[in-house]
Amino acid sequence: xxxxxxxxxxxxxxxxxxxxxxxxxxxxxxxxxxxxxxxxxxxxxxxxxxxxxxxxxxxxxxxxxxxxxxxxxxxxxxxxxxxxxxxxxxxxxxxxxxxxxxxxxxxxxxxxxxxxxxxxxxxxxxxxxxxxxxxxxxxxxxxxxxxxxxxxxxxxxxxxxxxxxxxxxxxxxxxxxxxxxxxxxxxxxxxxxxxxxxxxxxxxxxxxxxxxxxxxxxxxxxxxxxxxxxxxxxxxxxxxxxxxxxxxxxxxxxxxxxxxxxxxxxxxxxxxxxxxxxxxxxxxxxxxxxxxxxxxxxxxxxxxxxxxxxxxxxxxxxxxxxxxxxxxxxxxxxxxxxxxxxxxxxxxxxxxxxxxxxxxxxxxxxxxxxxxxxxxxxxxxxxxxxxxxxxxxxxxxxxxxxxxxxxxxxxxxxxxxxxxxxxxxxxxxxxx
Length: 432
Ligand code: ADP
Ligand code: MG
Prior knowledge:
Blueprint: H1 3-14, H2 20-27, E1 31-36, E2 39-44, H3 47-69, E3 74-79, H4 113-124, E4 133-137, H5 143-157, E5 163-167, H6 168-180, H7 184-192, E6 196-200, H8 209-224, E7 228-233, H9 245-251, E8 255-259, H10 264-277, H11 284-293, H12 298-315, H13 321-332, H14 340-350, H15 355-359, H16 365-381, H17 386-392, H18 398-414, H19 416-431
Parallel strand pairs: 2-3, 4-7, 4-8, 5-6, 6-7
Antiparallel strand pairs: 1-2
Helix pairs in contact: 1-3, 2-3, 4-5, 6-7, 10-11, 10-12, 11-13, 12-13, 14-16, 16-18, 17-18, 18-19
The structure holds adenosine-5'-diphosphate and magnesium ion (MG).
Adenosine-5'-diphosphate binds at residues 101, 105-107, 112, 137, 139-145, 270, 298-299, 302.
């Protein structure tokens, strides 16, 4: 049997056995290369794909292969790291997108490797596999960087491709302006003619029905025309408050991938890379000090380094641990207790509910989660007692507060996305 025919049969057979997501993300990423006897050699685009494909889809594929080829048939997967790709003509002029936000400048580690490889795949093969690509993660973790890197890479390959990169906020403002000038069609055409549309910070659409409706049509037009769409957000689609169901379904219809906080190893690697870019001689103990204390985002790591560079320049001295500790002290301080009101204000704005609704005793479904989260944060981030929290939420019973905290702790342990939301809130609370 010809290899492509065999592969088509196998892929068709997977439908009933695996989830649609596993098929779309992992099985579809496998490229059969060669059939030698009963061994089918196939390639995947990255190490992450290799791990995921091995654990999620390879067993089913192997059993289907055995049905066609015999009991000792096997699937041999390997990573195609691009070495065999024919060199492509690339465009070397200055790119119109934000300088520095390229794949080359992005340091890859466990917390962002899946997002990085998915983004590369989209840049290499727009609108073939992951459409839309939905990137999400907390503030300052590299979403805008990766989304822009896709634009750079696609542009370098084909500068004539129409690439539109804008934030959801720009989308909103441009559309309002277009309506005011009685020219909404121009705006629509500009977006719908794009070959690649990247919309950053789509959580901004939360609660804006008119914008959601407009974006829904833009999305559909592009998707139907097989154009690549990339979306970035600080929340996964299902946690974006007040997002219309149909738009959420669209957002979820491709590949959703997260960027988590960098672990210590990645923080050290990023610091080393940024220090080189800043031409800063960064002693290992100073790097370790920063990486072990500045944990919540890459943006903060960069901020710490910039501060050191500036301080060294002003004082005309070289960097050592003592000086770094002194300069970074404001960044390295222990968490400051916050007030119950600060927690309530933050949670209300995060979940787009009013503070009044948050603290009242009305039983409304959409208020349950924000209230529980607010009670949890109040307990962890302020010095308020259970009784004080109960009083601060409309005079409830303190067992209600304890229950809420338990629920949130349970979800935090079981749902990585929810844990991410809490982490972001906790760090926002510190800077509130
Ligand atoms: P987000 O959009 O997720 O809030 P950004 O993409 O703006 O975050 O990233 C914040 C800063 O951190 C940017 O300067 C970006 O270049 C840098 N950054 C984030 N992740 C990485 C990474 N893995 N490697 C190098 N720089 C990174
Ligand atoms: Mg951003």
